């Protein structure tokens, strides 16, 4: 599949943390109201990202009617959100919290409503706080990808990064902090 994404020349291999989620198990994410993975989000993708061997992950997503973009097919922005979730979760195999710095999607084929998209993702390496990832999506045949993505994620200090926003956080009760 064609892509314009270029990995840096100084990229270095990264290693799975020994305490990372075991292969085959769901990687527990940040909070239940997340649009990408949260079970309590009123609207969301509810993607479970499963740890694979090494620095790999996998996930699947049923394409529901509300995800429609063009007639009968998924909206491209929603697919990019799914890729963001899949790739953004993978650095937890390094036990490293990250946020998205840069995301690139290559769309190869329309994805019909009602289909189930299968994702595989992997960490390609890192440079300082930067983690480079890739993911591919298919509809059942890994030899026939429908889309692919590259993501650059930046390691953060969770407490500091969200310090100025936590009072706006929405909870399953529907209330904001302090509301
Ligand atoms: C557990 C989480 C699961 C996540 C799944 C979903 C993920 C998300 O949707 S996260 C939400 C979307 N993303 C965001 O809100 C991030 C907003 N951006 C920011 O907060 C900041 O720009 C942040 C934290 C990424 C970087 O800022 P800062 O900490 O000051 O670091 P900074 O020094 O600018 O950058 C660090 C390195 O990354 C590089 N970098 C930063 N942004 C980019 C970019 N867009 N493209 C390329 N390189 C970048 C910098 O050049 C620098 O590289 P180097 O080490 O070579 O100098």
UniProtKB/TrEMBL annotation:
Protein's UniProt name: Acyl-coenzyme A thioesterase THEM4
Membrane topology, record value: Peripheral membrane protein
InterPro entries (alphabetical): HotDog_dom_sf (IPR029069), THEM4/THEM5_acyl-CoA_thioest (IPR052365), Thioestr_dom (IPR006683)
Gene Ontology CC annotations of this record: cytoplasm; membrane
EC class (word): hydrolase
GO molecular function terms attached to this record: hydrolase activity
Annotated ranges, domain Thioesterase: 72-143
Keyword tags: Apoptosis, Cell membrane, Cell projection, Cytoplasm, Fatty acid metabolism, Hydrolase, Lipid metabolism, Membrane, Transit peptide
Membrane-crossing residue ranges in chain numbering: none
Localization (cell): Cell projection, Ruffle membrane; Cytoplasm; Membrane
Main location: membrane
E.C. code: 3.1.2.2
Catalytic activity as recorded in UniProt: (5Z,8Z,11Z,14Z)-eicosatetraenoyl-CoA + H2O = (5Z,8Z,11Z,14Z)-eicosatetraenoate + CoA + H(+); decanoyl-CoA + H2O = decanoate + CoA + H(+); hexadecanoyl-CoA + H2O = hexadecanoate + CoA + H(+); tetradecanoyl-CoA + H2O = tetradecanoate + CoA + H(+)
The organism's place on the tree of life at top rank: Bacteria
Family statement: Belongs to the THEM4/THEM5 thioesterase family.
GO biological process entries: fatty acid metabolic process
High-level lineage: Bacteria, Bacillati, Actinomycetota, Actinomycetes, Mycobacteriales
């Amino acid at each position: 599949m064609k892509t314009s994404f270029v990995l840096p020349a100084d990229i270095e291999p990264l290693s799975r943390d020994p305490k990372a989620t075991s292969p085959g198990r769901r990687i527990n994410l940040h909070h239940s109201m997340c649009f990408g993975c949260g079970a309590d989000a009123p609207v969301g993708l509810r993607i479970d990202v499963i740890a694979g061997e090494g620095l790999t992950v996998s996930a699947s997503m049923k394409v529901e009617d509300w995800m429609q973009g063009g007639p009968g097919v998924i909206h491209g922005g929603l697919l990019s959100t799914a890729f963001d979730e899949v790739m953004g979760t993978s650095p937890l195999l390094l036990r490293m919290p990250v946020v998205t710095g840069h995301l690139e999607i290559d769309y190869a084929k329309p994805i019909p409503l009602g289909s189930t998209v299968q994702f595989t993702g992997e960490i390609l390496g890192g440079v300082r706080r930067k983690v480079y990832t890739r993911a591919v999506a298919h509809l059942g045949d890994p030899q026939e990808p429908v889309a692919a993505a590259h993501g650059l994620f930046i390691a953060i200090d969770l407490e500091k990064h969200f310090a100025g926003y936590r009072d706006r956080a929405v909870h399953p009760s529907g209330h904001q902090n302090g509301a």
